[in-house]
Design a protein that fits this description.
The chain is mainly alpha-helical. It is built from 4 helices and no strands. The chain has one domain. Helix 2 crosses helix 3 and helix 3 packs antiparallel against helix 4. The longest helix is centred in the middle third of the chain and has 22 residues.
Length: about 80
């Protein structure tokens, strides 16, 4: 599958914004934890991006607000694959 560079860059920008704003704080905490586990910064952000993409897809599919609790739970479970539940 070909990578959509524009989408990937947009998701990485959101992640950087979350880290810089410390909102939610778990994004920066997750980045540090994953890097401490041996992942590169890019790999760690890819994992975080998966959690973000799952949440964004759920929001669009079900026309509901962003569920920060589910997003944070998915961040805490990384590198395990994120879930919509």
């Amino acid at each position: 599958m070909k990578v959509n560079e524009n989408l990937r860059n947009a998701i990485l920008e959101v992640i950087d914004n979350q880290i810089n704003a410390n909102d939610p704080a778990e994004t920066a905490t997750t980045l540090k934890r994953l890097m401490d586990e041996g992942y590169s910064e890019f790999e760690a952000k890819q994992f975080i991006g998966q959690a973000l993409a799952v949440e964004l897809f759920y929001v669009m599919k079900h026309k509901v607000p962003f569920n920060e609790t589910r997003y944070i739970n998915n961040l805490r479970n990384l590198p395990k694959e994120p879930s919509e539940t």
